[in-house]
Amino acid sequence: MRITDVIAAKRRGEELTDEQIGFWIDGLESFADYQNSALLMAIVINGMSFRETSTLTRAMLQSGSSLDLSRYGDVTVDKHSTGGVGDGTSLIVMPVAAACGKIAAKLSGRGLGHTGGTLDKLESVDGVRTDLSQREFFDIIDKTGIAIAGQTDSLCPADKYLYALRDVTATVDSIPLIASSVMSKKLAAGARNIVLDVKTGRGAFLKTREESETLAKIMVGIGSRVGSNVSALVTDMDSPLENCIGNAIEVQCALRILRGEERGEVYDVSKALCAALGVDGGAFDRAIASGAAYAKFESMIAAQGGKPGCLDRLPVAKYSVTVEARESGYVADVDALKVARAVLEAGGGRKRKGDPILPEVGARLHVAVGDRAERGMPLATLYFSRPGDEELAALLADAFSIAAQEPPRKSRIICKIDKEDL
Ligand code: URA
């Protein structure tokens, strides 16, 4: 078999055989980046059937080893988002679940396209490592009940490679590629209970509710077939979920929520995600109010290498620029994609595979959709580190629409997909 034949088959829109998919993933790193990119693009354009997507997931899962969490019984939990803007829910859901007696074992990803990644956020904390060996992962879980690590050369290496390549070849927004990437990581991490946050809308990779529901059903289907207890929430990502977008700034936001200093939509979505993992609303509120969730987060940070006092001195950008309302009215819209682009252009995300990111870069929104804004009032602040990037304020300003009428309130949580819905 030749990789060019597999590329050509998918380019013609054929359904790939299990052998072709296995051949690709087994030989992934022996093929050139341009060949892998060509096949990824053919998949984006021509799609994959459920069988192909399941086979791709299994091949990616088998590209490395899996964690056996069975010694912890039925209380192991994991959570994954398909990629959002200002979406630090993992930093809240995992510590709350751990504080409520669950074993929170998560394999995360880096920022992809315009969206943020939990690994990049965590690594903005001085000393924190996410490239944990399996032994370290288990030692940390034994000690703290919570660990968040990245794909490694032993855990889902195929996703590690493809994820970085997709990020820079415009091949992220594809249902089979997202499903196989997410589910191979989730199955490799081995948790019994998994909740998926499938984002939909402008700031998500999938823009329509229909596509996002399809993705949710495919992922729940793949997980359920191998005996995992998987469910998904489809949530709106037209506007950023939190008022902070970036890396260190999203950690700061999570700290405020975990300390009980702030609430908002991110609190509600985190609560709903926890509920899907068996942590009811009362237990969620108590874990925050008692400081137990914050203590779990702190212990995980320390166990993953965080230096003493690191949470009190997160990186801060040298410069900032604030954009103001040009007219009075209601905030009718905050375009998540435009906000994310401003942060990415300022160095808060990657444009090329392996690019370093500037953890201190980010944006803070001072108003949310539905708020009243008076002319001259601050709408958002961009924090940046490179002189000249103040020009990106125009992009940030462009994310806001002000209207005379108060916009209708939308619910963030659109629907829940369980095994029974398939
Ligand atoms: N998150 C992942 O892990 N993979 C994707 O492809 C998109 C979001």
Strand portion: 15-25%
Distance between the termini: 35 Å
Neighbour order of strands in the largest sheet: 3-2-1-4-5-13
CATH architecture of the largest domain: 3-Layer(aba) Sandwich
Stated plainly, the CATH topology of the largest domain is called Pyrimidine Nucleoside Phosphorylase, Chain A, domain 2
CATH class category label of the largest domain: Alpha Beta
Structural class: alpha/beta
Helical segment count = 16
The overall strand count is 13
Low-confidence stretches: none
Helix content: 40-55%
CATH superfamily of the largest domain: Nucleoside phosphorylase/phosphoribosyltransferase catalytic domain
Mean pLDDT: 96
**What molecules are bound to this protein?**
uracil
Q: What is the general shape?
A: globular
Biggest sheet descriptor: 6 strands, mixed
SSE succession: HHHHEHEHHEHHEHEEHHHHEEHEEEHEE
Indicate how many domains the architecture comprises: 3
Structure write-up:
This protein is α/β, with parallel strands linked by helices. It has 3 domains: 45 residues, Transferase, Pyrimidine Nucleoside Phosphorylase, Chain A, domain 3 (Up-down Bundle); 250 residues, Nucleoside phosphorylase/phosphoribosyltransferase catalytic domain (Pyrimidine Nucleoside Phosphorylase, Chain A, domain 2, 3-Layer(aba) Sandwich); 85 residues, Pyrimidine nucleoside phosphorylase-like, C-terminal domain (Aldehyde Oxidoreductase, domain 3), CATH 3.90.1170.30. It contains 16 helices and 13 strands. A 6-stranded mixed β-sheet has the order 3-2-1-4-5-13, with helices on both faces. Strands 6-9-11-7 form a 4-stranded antiparallel β-sheet. The longest helix has 17 residues. It starts with a helix and ends in a 5-residue tail after the last strand. The mean pLDDT is 96. Bound molecules: uracil (URA). The site of uracil has 10 residues, from helix 9.
